[in-house]
Amino acid sequence: MDETPLLDEDPSDLVLRLAELKAEIIAARNPGRWVMAADTTVAVDHHP
Q1: Catalytic residue of the set 2, 8, 10, 39
Q2: What are phi and psi of 47, to 5 degrees?
Q3: In sequence order, what are the residues at sequence separation of 6 or more whose Cβ sits closer than 8 angstroms to the Cβ of residue 26?
Q4: Whole-number pLDDT of residue 46
Q5: Do 42 and 48 contact (CB within 8 A), yes or no?
Q6: What pTM does this model have?
Q7: Known active-site residue 39
């Protein structure tokens, strides 16, 4: 999956979007199972 930040995407929005996308992908492969996902980034002056 492409983890490239969207144009002008805030780092906190980036990690939330990526974590949700990863959870959706894993949930689709594991119906009926609990899924927890997270993501991190390093940001300098609000730029990932």
Answers
A1: 39
A2: -120, 120
A3: 35, 37
A4: 74
A5: yes
A6: 0.84
A7: yes
